[in-house]
Amino acid sequence: MQLTKHDKAKLTGEAVPSMLSTYEPWEDYELTFLCETYPSKDWSVLQIAQKLDRSINGIHQKAFALEIKRPNRTFAHRHSPDFIVDIKTDQRINTIIAKWGCSKAEVDRGRARLRAMEAAA
């Protein structure tokens, strides 16, 4: 019977590379940067993660642990007649996202709501 690396590691007490923790403790400057940028609308979580060389998930987890909140996003465009016209048309979704600064999910939800309203009418 052939043992896997995982089985051998269990028997010998050695760590297998896939089992090693890649966690890097947070430095003070990283925590300060996170506390300053995470609540700001000027910084996306992706930008913060790239700047700190951390994962997006790691940024969210540390912010949650520090009880730092992201600002509420405004969705005023949802009620704009121009936005509704744009999502009614067959424009490319990337064009709408770039124009309105919204997510693909927002465009999809908007289109689904329009279809539901049209079906109900």
Short précis:
This protein has 121 residues and is an all-alpha fold.
Main traits of this protein?
121 residues; mainly alpha; Arc Repressor Mutant, subunit A; 0% strand
Structure, explained:
This protein has 121 residues and is an all-alpha fold. The chain folds into 2 domains: 13-65, Arc Repressor Mutant, subunit A (Orthogonal Bundle); 76-120. It contains 7 helices and no strands. It has helices at residues 5-12, 28-37, 45-52, 56-65, 81-88, 93-100, 104-120. Helix 3 (45-52) packs across helix 4. The longest helix is centred in the last third of the chain and has 17 residues, at 104-120. The radius of gyration is 23 Å and the shape is elongated. The mean pLDDT is 80.
What is the count of DSSP helices, taking H or I runs of 4+ residues? 7
User: What is the oligomer described by this structure?
Assistant: single chain
**CA-atom Rg in angstroms:** 23 Å
Domains, number: 2
Mean pLDDT: 80
Shape: elongated
- Main sheet attributes: strand count, strand direction, barrel closure: none
Please provide the ordered H/E string of secondary-structure elements: HHHHHHH
The total of beta strands comes to: 0
Which CATH class of the largest domain is shown?
Mainly Alpha
Give helix % range: 55-70%
Q: Which stretches are poorly predicted, pLDDT < 50 over at least 5 residues?
A: none
Helix- and strand-based class?
mainly alpha
CATH topology of the largest domain: Arc Repressor Mutant, subunit A
Just name the CATH architecture of the largest domain: Orthogonal Bundle
Could you tell me how far the N terminus lies from the C terminus, measured between alpha carbons in angstroms?
68 Å
In percent, how much strand structure appears in the residues?
A: under 5%
